[in-house]
Amino acid sequence: MTTRVSRRFMLRGLGGVSLGLPLLEIMLDRKAFAQNAPTPPKRYLVFFDGQSTGADNDQRHNDLVPNTVGRNYDLKSALAPLGALKSEVSVVSGLKIPWAAENGGTIPSGGRRDGFHVSTVSPLLAGVRSSASTTAAMGPTSDQVVAGFLAGSTPFPSLAYRVQADWYLSVSAPYGREFISYKRDTSNRITPIPAQVSPRQAFNALFGNFTPPGVDAATRARIDFEKRSRKSILDIVRGDTERLVPKLGAADQIRLQRHLDGFRDLERRVDAIAPPETSSCIKPMDPGADPPTGSPQGQNGAGENTYAQNLGYSNEEQRANLFVDLIHMAMVCDLTRVATLQMTMFQSHLNMFSITGQATDCHELGHGGVPGGTMAMSQGIAWHVKHFARLVQKFRDTREGNGTMLDNSALLFLLEGGHGYDPEGVKNNSSHSTENMACLIAGRAGGLSPGQHVVAAGRHPANVVISAMKAVGAPDETLGEVNGAIPQLFSTT
Amino acid sequence: MLRRLVLCLLPALGCTGIVGDSSTLSTEDAEAVGVSGLRRLTRVELDATLRDLIGEPNPLARTLLPPDPTDPFDNDYRQQLASTTLVDSLEALAQQAAERTVADMSRKARVLPCMPTGANDATCYRLFVRTFGRQALRRPITNEEVERFMPLHALGVEANSFDTAVTLALRAFLQHPEFVYRVELGVPSGQGVVQLTGFHRATRLSYLIVGSTPPDWLLDDAASGALSTRDGVRTAAQKLLTDPRARPQVERFHALWLGYHRLPHAAQLTAAMQAESDALVDRVVFDPNADYLTLFTATETFIDPTLAQHYGLTFTGTQPTWTSYGAAPRKGLLSHGSVLSQGVKFADSSPTQRGIFIRNRLLCQEVPPPPPGVNVDEQPTSSSPCKKDRYQTHASAGGCKGCHSTIDPIGFGLERFDRQGRYRTTDDNLPQCTIEGAGTVDGTTFNGPTGLADALIASGRFEECITTQVFRYAAGRREEVRDHAFIARMTKEFIANDRKFLDLLVTLVSDDGFAFRRDEEAL
Fold it and tell me: Does residue A445 fall inside a structural domain?
């Protein structure tokens, strides 16, 4: 059973007439589960917005960070979609990723090169200083570190999904802007994990082998036959791949080994027994065909910009809803405990017209693509926050043990940049800045105490990431070159 | 902040001489053999392969697989990255393709070499695995390999369905590493060099010339040894070039090279522009008498009424037709909307981006990224609203000048053509800003795409860049020092043969550089 009503709200008895029955159910179920509830697993999620917080030449660094500090903070426009869920979400502000110029030109520990775009991938997601020249993370990202100790025998050690379906520029490639998850592969190299962008394929991979309850024997036999068939096929192709690897040159061995790793992941999932459907673990509706991928951005025959024609858009609204639903249910059913959801690429050129009505793309919002500066930009952030809020709400509305799934989760919302000084352009009030960064963290795992605005002046956003990692059981408070959680996030005062 | 513009010109290496068909190479020739690694079929190649192998009409790979990195070609194997997402997608693709094949009587008949007597018919199953396996993996299948497919037959017996066994075998083949990748184990011939077998050569020929899996006759040539001689390869290449699939493949090479495989316009305009360029490429490349450089000097173009109106050209009639440019300041491919749509920034043509495009794609020179301290997301500004003044102000600043003085003047020579290839004499919405349209490339002044084409042709470097781009597409990677001799041989032949593009392809595939490879030591 799920309900869309805040538990706290109901328990305070302010819910009005319609709440009588759910309240009764919750109280009864809680009693029933309290006796011998199994310990629910912890869950970890990184949700990513490829934007900075403020626009160029606007003195307002953001319209996100609350004015008030502590609990019951005020909601600015970028966080407005949180609504009453703000009690489940903490805001951490005042964060900063250091850069080369302030360290004598040398990229500092946990810092970034001065050139902005994609320079935050490595420090933000892996806690390791960026490379001077490449866009890649220089160490494993937090999701992969967490999967290392949290995944256990779940069929999917981690999920990597992306909502933005395409790069949307016709004359260039994303060059790493499309990755937020990196692992150390079996060749001991730091390798990006390309995200799944098809909700349909994600659905098939997660729930394709679910056996609906109460099916007849013939259906059950057919499902069993299909499972054995897949295993036999994978035996052949995996075996042939293994035979092939040692015959190849050194570089090709690494290439094919990565493919082989993919086969082993797949076999592990085919072997896994689908969880029994329960009152909360339910096979979702088949999402049907994916929305078509949009063409690159540009202009129409009359030379007008085509934002209003929806080029550069692949119904990311629907894709975001589907991926949030899939991640939620995959975690409910314990198919996985770790996920990344990249809403938008770094320096995202997603067309905002269908989303916010703004005739510009997500990246240009930071550079004056439409009037309104930081306030206009905040509408784009608010769209990301809306989907994050929907995820938090689904977790909050899923009962688990004595409480809800949120009690066992740490959910991060990270942004590409902040706003302030740009060492590359030597400018203030720039969107190409890692001053004044902020992030969100939801969940109560490991004693996290959400619902606060914490000012962590001068601390690194990876300190918030480390707090989330600690909450789900990380053995030490370290990510790459950054150390320490933020104690206030665990404080109930 | 000062940074030098590094122009990576290919050194004009002398010809190393062409070796014979022997499997032994001189030390010098062996040294000139380039590396080649595992190449995964691109999504477009995979779709073509499924079409030709099992009659699949739908673009399953383009629907299911992650996009190929495209910069500018989509087949650079060094940019490919295997992942769980890829393996999952391939499994889904294999299942859908197999089930759709067996569900269709005529498609099933195409892959089955025999009529099974029943689910138990192991003889027919083995024959099917052997014949289909040869087509799918592009090499003969051993008895031992056939036996490895027998557990799938057993599942068919259990289900009392021969079709089931066939479906499962198809699923295995269509996600098999040797189907998905082009694996070239070859025969070690010393000095770190591997000689390719006839089957490897058949695969290279086929994917280069028709963009798909080798047809049966080509596999037969491989088996008979016909591809072990240079004449045999040449004959096969010429036969493939008469295949109807060769034209779209040649068109696609050009569209990727010059960036118009996708265009940022409404669908109708995009299609009209692509059709215009495809038609000219076809006309020049497949005319046995045409000099390839006609592609850049043609005085006629293939347009429809919409495109004629877009360009402001006189046009009568309603159907697409070859039309003379007349007095219009246009000729050749560089005048097409498809190419003039390249290099757009800040919702306008960008002289800088166009200059970089010309240097990268048509002169094969790498332009280094902007130095630190430059926010490339900010528009150049000056006290004048006119674009030329704005760009000159920012390009004359300190360390920017070095690079921009070699890039922007090329773009300024195209400024009389807007971001959709329409002619203009003033900046968009700024009638007070007159565009002169004068440009400079490496000391030669020009005005417009006609002058640029002449300047490129006169530069003496154009042919080498054309062969370099063909090399990159054929090899699936960028060239290295070791490849320069091969590219120099191709360039020399290209010029000596009056610049026939199809002859260039035949020269390439019948060169020893195409018959040998060496392993890469590291990623």
Answer: yes
